[in-house]
Write a structure and sequence with these properties.
Layout (H helix, E strand, L loop, with lengths): L2 H30 L6 E4 L3 E8 L10 H22 L5 H24 L2 E9 L2 E2 L5 H34 L1
Antiparallel strand pairs: 1-2, 2-3, 3-4
Helix pairs in contact: 1-3, 2-3, 3-4
Length: about 170
């Protein structure tokens, strides 16, 4: 297998893995949790609370269900194309892109099946709660963090190369 194809596979395999884990955990949440009834996992810090998200990230009302479905589908398509076109990048970069793709596909599948997204992970302490989220959201955020870190490392390396070229001349 060519190196570029192997590198692309990191992105697509990551996406499929995220999608599978996301959908499995959502089915478990739907089958085992009552709507808006918290189940303590680690005291009050981590709870599983089934919730439906009709909005965008953090349940923000942003454009309505059809708009969000179309935007999510377009984003997933674009990331899939990026993975294909950027196949020469590092496996970690492509896995980060794959995590974003898998998360987008997981939430898109929910929107297509239910018209809204299944959320169930509930974090907080001392009366403060983060908006409820899911595995897809973790993957999208984690993939984005990986890309930012890699970009910063690459930018720092390029800056160092420019300094070396300037000092050498």
């Amino acid at each position: 297998m060519k190196t570029e194809q192997r590198s692309r596979s990191y992105g697509y395999v990551t996406a499929l893995t995220v999608l599978a884990i996301d959908q499995l955990t959502k089915r478990l949440a739907l089958g085992g949790l009552e709507l808006h009834h918290p189940e303590a996992i680690l005291g009050n810090i981590l709870r599983f609370t089934l919730a439906w998200n009709q909005g965008a990230a953090f349940s923000m009302p942003w454009g309505g269900p059809l708009f969000l479905t179309v935007v999510t589908a377009a984003a997933a398509l674009m990331v899939s194309i990026f993975i294909w076109k950027l196949g020469k990048h590092s496996p970690l970069f492509l896995a980060g892109m794959g995590a974003i793709l898998g998360g987008a596909l997981g939430n898109l599948l929910d929107r297509l099946m239910y018209g809204k997204v299944v959320d169930f992970i509930d974090l907080g302490f001392t009366g403060w709660r983060w908006p409820t989220f899911n595995v897809a959201d973790i993957a999208i955020t984690g993939g984005g963090i990986i890309l930012v870190i890699l970009y910063k490392k690459e930018a720092a390396a390029e800056e160092e190369d420019i300094k070396e070229d300037t000092n050498a001349g």
